[in-house]
Design brief:
Strand content: 5-15%
Structural class: alpha/beta
Number of strands: 14
Shape: globular
Largest sheet: 7 strands, parallel
Distance between the termini: 67 Å
Radius of gyration: 31 Å
């Protein structure tokens, strides 16, 4: 097994391409003997670009090539409309997102374009007053293209794409769709643009960018039966085996995924660990792991190798590419925190002090959700509190606590007696808006139920249940 650590995405993917060439040369292998795996589809972008540069034939197994994905083609079509105004890009984007421009509109525009020997965009610009073309959506589309052309004169390609996504409505459309893969692919596209600008050490304009990616977008996608390297997600690879396997993008926030890290659930992390095991066991002869430094647009943080890499004993793999002391220190933080949390967990029965809810007792621990269930004496309720909540400490003076618990019990009896003699202040204002929530409800959500005490009169009990958010019994 070999691990390679690159300084950036380009270095990582170019190393993969060069290693594939080495395998073909020294092992007398075919392209089809080699498979590249990744956790998420957007990882394929930099890999594909390097394979194309090195003239290595490849196919996406169970998926679509990066620059052929719908959301990527949408953005590239608007870029081409800004520069060339070609008909293919126009037909793709004039009514996407929907602008209410239907079949009759495009038929009339196509007729005028042929008659006047103009592109569809130019025909619309010159005939916008035509009865069939004078639509609100058509005018808005022309305004959009004009605005983007002006922005393109002064903005770099990465900034221009951000403007395109917001002004065209595409960003909102993708967000409403809720398709995480589309959103990740868009982030990856912008990331590749920023990296290109960094490599060039200057901003890249739209014309330069389209020229740069022409190689990746004008490929002949036929001849699928040719001998090719296979690219696929780890999920798709389950049950399959290949002589040589590369696992790329082995970074924290990708594998394990950012979502599993955010949830901080042991079950989610364990599932990501099993997925890594699936990838490792796909290889029959040789297995490669690669990662790189840089910026992760998914997590919004700098990239570090996956925590799972350091769960593998170094005697089992060869490392290529130097890991800096800073990276080694940074990767240790998650596991060290996990160890600390597990060692410092309060136990069931422990007495604790919470900054808001004051004194309480640990009733249960939920390891899946990383939560305590705590019975707080002063509010008389149980609350879920996250393991990572900092402002809570163990109480060691039992006698003081027991005294306070007794005081609280006496106070509760006095309160019930007092309530019996009090008139419900909400009897006349039953339909008025509820009073402002208490501090604990503002911070930790509304209580599921407000259960009145057994000694309360039935009328008061009913009113309390109906007006539970008013909490008039709290002084």
């Amino acid at each position: 097994m070999v691990h390679f650590h690159g300084k950036n995405d380009f270095e990582e993917s170019l190393w993969v391409a060069s290693e594939i060439k080495q395998i073909l040369k020294t092992e007398k292998a075919n392209y089809s003997d080699i498979t590249i795996l990744y956790r998420a589809n957007h990882i394929s972008r930099n890999i594909e670009q390097s394979l194309i540069k090195e003239n290595i034939l490849y196919t996406i197994f169970g998926g679509v090539k990066f620059f052929e994905r719908k959301e990527i083609k949408d953005v590239l079509s608007l870029l081409r409309l800004i520069v060339t105004g070609d008909n293919i890009s126009f037909l793709r984007m004039f009514n996407h997102p929907s602008r209410g421009l239907g079949k009759k509109f495009i038929e009339r525009l196509s007729y005028l374009g042929r008659e006047q020997n103009l592109s569809l965009l130019s025909a619309l610009e010159q005939n916008i007053a035509d009865k069939e073309l004078a639509k609100k959506g058509a005018a808005e589309f022309l305004d959009l293209i004009a605005e983007l052309k002006e922005i393109a004169k002064t903005k770099s390609i990465s900034d221009l794409v951000k403007e395109i996504l917001e002004r065209s409505g595409l960003a909102e459309l993708y967000r409403k769709d809720g398709d995480e893969d589309r959103l990740e692919n868009i982030k990856e596209l912008v990331s590749s643009m920023l990296l290109l600008e960094k490599e060039n050490k200057e901003p890249v304009n739209v014309e330069e960018y389209l020229q740069e990616i022409a190689l990746y977008t004008d490929l002949d996608t036929h001849n699928e039966n040719q001998d090719k390297v296979k690219l696929m997600t780890i999920h798709i690879s389950k049950g399959l085996e290949f002589p040589y396997v590369f696992l790329c993008g082995f970074t924290e926030g990708v594998l394990p995924s950012a979502l599993s890290i955010k949830e901080r659930r042991s079950r989610a992390i364990e599932e990501e660990r099993r997925l890594t095991y699936v990838a490792v066991t796909r290889a029959e002869k040789r297995f490669y792991i690669t990662d790189s430094e840089g910026y992760n647009f998914t997590t919004g943080l700098n990239k570090y190798p996956s925590r799972f890499l350091f769960e593998i004993s170094e005697e089992f793999y060869i490392r290529k590419g130097k890991l800096s002391p800073e990276i080694l220190q940074a990767y240790k933080v998650p596991s060290r925190n996990s160890d600390t949390e597990s060692k410092e967990l309060f136990a069931v029965g422990d007495l604790v002090f919470h900054e808001v809810f004051k004194k309480g007792r640990i009733k249960a621990l939920n390891l899946d959700k990383n939560q305590y269930t705590i019975d707080f004496f002063e509010i008389g309720k149980e609350k879920p509190i996250d393991f990572n909540f900092r402002f809570m400490k163990r109480i060691t003076d039992d006698s003081i606590l027991e005294s306070n618990e007794a005081d609280n019990t006496n106070s509760a009896i006095d309160l019930q007696t007092h309530l019996k003699s009090q008139k419900n202040p909400f009897e006349k204002d039953f339909n008025e808006s509820s009073a402002e929530e208490s501090l604990e409800d503002q911070q930790f959500g509304k209580d599921e139920k407000a259960v009145p005490g057994e000694n309360l009169s039935s009328g008061i009990a009913t009113d309390i249940a109906k007006n539970k958010n008013k909490k008039w019994w709290k002084f």
